[in-house]
Amino acid sequence: MGLFTRTFSHKKWVDAVDRVTAGGDNGFNVRFQALEVDLDNIAAAFDTVASGLERQATINLVPGLTQSGTNGWVHGLGTASKAPSKGDAAGLQPVALPARGTIKTFRVLGQNTGNGTLKIELIRQEFTTSSQVSVVTITAPKTTSSQVFDLPRAPVAGTEGLDQKYSYFVSATLSGADPADVVALYGFQLICLTS
Fold this sequence. Notes:
Layout: H1 28-51, E1 55-61, E2 66-67, E3 74-76, E4 79-81, E5 89-95, E6 101-112, E7 117-126, E8 132-139, E9 149-153, E10 161-162, E11 166-175, E12 183-194
Antiparallel strand pairs: 1-12, 2-5, 3-4, 4-12, 5-11, 6-9, 6-10, 6-12, 7-8, 7-11
């Protein structure tokens, strides 16, 4: 037996013999109620099938980096930038990911007009040992003042699986920038498959 077995069976009316009514054993109400039961059973069967399918979850994050070095990131409306008079910045941001599934991509958008090294990492940390592993490492290229880099990257093989024993965070570090350089982060995006 499959996920659904039809229970409704239509009994044909005969012209000039059957009188169509709303009530009674052969009325519209009884027949439509039987159809409702079958439709509810079909919906339940679809829910059962769909619950086993992977679903894509997209998690968009505005940079909200907590200072983790000598100089932190300066936050504006929806952005994080290096301080105008500084050549470096470092910050961390926790990320809430589904308990089970697979990370497909980590994506970063931003700008880096100088020669400083801008490295953004998605890191997982084990709860019991605090052991850390870089899931994705992105080194941003130099851009012009009118360009934005958009860098989606797949995780390192073996780190893509989501598990409740890990917590995740983004690390963004800038080093060696000129104080006049424009370095900004506009967003982080994670795409995961969950079941």
